[in-house]
Amino acid sequence: MKHVVVIGGGVVGISCALSLLDDGHDVTVLDPGAVGEGASWASCGCIAVGEVVPLSQPGMLTKVPGWLIDPDSPLSLRPSSALKLLPWFARFTANSRPSKMREIAVDLAKLNFAATDDFKAQMVKYGVQDMLIERPVLKLFEDDRDKATMGAAFDLAREMGCTIDEISGAEAHEIEPAIAPDFQHAAVLRDWSFVADPRRLVIALHRAFDQRGGKVVVTAGTGFTRENQRLTGVTCADGQTISADEVVLAAGTHSKALASQLEIALQLEGVLGYSTGLSDPGVDLKHTVFYPSGGFGITPYENELAVAGTIEFAGLTADPRWRRADVLVKRAHRVLPGLQDKKASRRMGRRPFTPDTRPILGRSAKMPNLTFATGHGQLGLTLGATTGGIVADLIAGRSPQIDIAAFSPDRF
């Protein structure tokens, strides 16, 4: 048995901690935030199995220049972060070549296609099997031109094995009568599903971890102690040092700065996403509905309707621009004309993005007892359980069932 310290208690970190605990290790999680109120709380809550095409799609890239100068656009860059992010954007753009997109999609499919089964197994094991809502997701398009921006992505996703049915906007309205009837096109993403409440999910996983003897320390990991090429402990914001035989870095957007202390350079940037929970929405919705040109999705959680999305590049200490959340709600009336938004609560989450959309999983040759589980971008909720199993395999000396070479922290 080893003592493993997991830095980060979000959905990825706690999933890793539970898998390690089940393997018989002594596990400590370091997490300074309120349980369940991380990046996944400000999301659409999807198990996005079909999200295998990288973000660097040509259809998206043609819109980026206009988006970047519009503070209310789906993708925004704060001027104070522009210069620092140029190298990241250069690498991001380089991944838009068809050959690179296909290569990345193949790698992401390896992980994503295991996600639903892994998630279900996790939910059954920890007694929250009611959490997964197995209904497909709808995407809406205004017209032919709007639909065309997703054409290459849909073709590549189908090539990878995803099931996407293209239907008319009128058919989408028949499936969900709350949707406006005048969209020309829509798509049904059969491989997707969503959770009843991402905050309740993470709280439930933390409760299971506590009941099984795991320990959570409410503090941030700030650095490391080491002897030669091995870590011996993690230093914390509250001044203590926690000894460790193994360390798992699942600190989301903070992972880059922590890795840099070990001279491991990660190409990782944090982006802000926004969500508004509407507790009395005035409409009945059964499926998650995405409106790509508006940069958001709408998910019917068990106690509210969540309007979530946008990508905003900003520093880790930047305050939220709540106007962006308000803009999403305003645009949501285009999708759901009967929407009521008077009872609303806003939230923000910081998501760790890599320029190739691949998460960072595995060990670095520079530090053999450090395992990375970060950089999931918009797939943290989707890949939490799968990542936990991979991390447990690595620390036990087992070969993961999925080839994770493409996700190595040393690829940068």
From TrEMBL:
GO terms of molecular function: oxidoreductase activity
Gene3D superfamilies assigned to the protein according to its UniProt record, in alphabetical order: D-Amino Acid Oxidase, subunit A, domain 2, FAD/NAD(P)-binding domain
InterPro entries membership: FAD-dep_OxRdtase, FAD/NAD-bd_sf
One GO location term (cellular component): cytoplasm
EC class: oxidoreductase
Keyword Oxidoreductase found: yes
Entry annotated with the keyword Oxidoreductase: yes
Keywords: Oxidoreductase
EC number: 1.4.99.6
FAD dependent oxidoreductase domain sequence ranges: 3-394
Name of the featured protein: D-amino acid dehydrogenase small subunit
Organism: Shimia thalassica
Lineage of producing organism: Bacteria, Pseudomonadati, Pseudomonadota, Alphaproteobacteria, Rhodobacterales
